[in-house]
Specification:
single chain; alpha/beta; 7 helices; 4 strands; 64% helix
């Protein structure tokens, strides 16, 4: 399951090493080639950067997480990975005598953070959108009502909308909190309190 992530991470890590220099020299290939010594150092260090990233991702469980359900904990691990890699980048080039401009370490860390967020949470967004569209298109004959618009209700709604084993469509939500009436959760209306259950049942048939 996580093999595609490993492949993309390895390839992207190599390009991040080069891209940080390219950005440092004002996005200019000419300036980059004029400082070819730095480019040569970045290329030589790239295998260390790639292997380090893969190991850090394993340590912080970025390959073991189920990204459809990713949240703040996974995001904090991505930040930690980016910070650790910045340290490895700086320390590694120093000890191997392959140092590059210091700004490149910050640029590479930002690029890595952006890349990890894009791939992981982008994957989550695509899976969620696909599940939502499948839910909307393939909803079966059963219409259901959810009682409660609190945390438990939201969990039930999310599970029903993302599950491939259910053939039901949520048509409305009942909640006694008047401040929630008329609002929506995942596009599903909160129609009123318990006194509205019978009317809601008639309306969703």
């Amino acid at each position: 399951m996580f093999l595609p992530f490993i492949v993309f991470d390895a390839i992207s890590a190599f390009f991040i090493c080069i891209a940080s220099l390219w950005i440092r020299f004002d996005f200019s290939i000419t300036k980059l080639l004029e400082n070819v010594a730095y480019l040569d150092k970045a290329i030589k260090f790239s295998p260390v950067y790639v292997i380090s990233l893969l190991l850090i991702c394993f340590i912080f469980k970025l390959y073991q997480s189920i990204w459809e359900y990713a949240g703040f904990l996974e995001f904090s691990r991505i930040i930690a990975t980016s910070l650790f890699m910045a340290g490895i980048h700086a320390a590694g080039t120093y000890f191997l005598s392959l140092m590059i401009p210091r700004s490149c370490y910050f640029i590479a860390a930002f690029l890595l953070l952006f890349y990890l967020c894009l791939t992981r949470f982008g994957y989550k967004a695509i899976r969620s959108l696909n599940s939502y569209m499948t839910y909307r298109i393939n909803s079966g004959t059963k219409n259901v009502m959810i009682i409660g618009a609190g945390a438990a209700g939201r969990i039930i709604i999310r599970e029903m909308m993302t599950s491939s084993h259910l053939n039901e469509q949520i048509r409305c939500i009942i909640d006694d909190d008047e401040s929630k009436v008329g609002r929506f959760i995942n596009g599903i209306p909160i129609v009123g309190g318990r006194d509205r259950i019978q009317d809601a049942v008639l309306n969703i048939r």
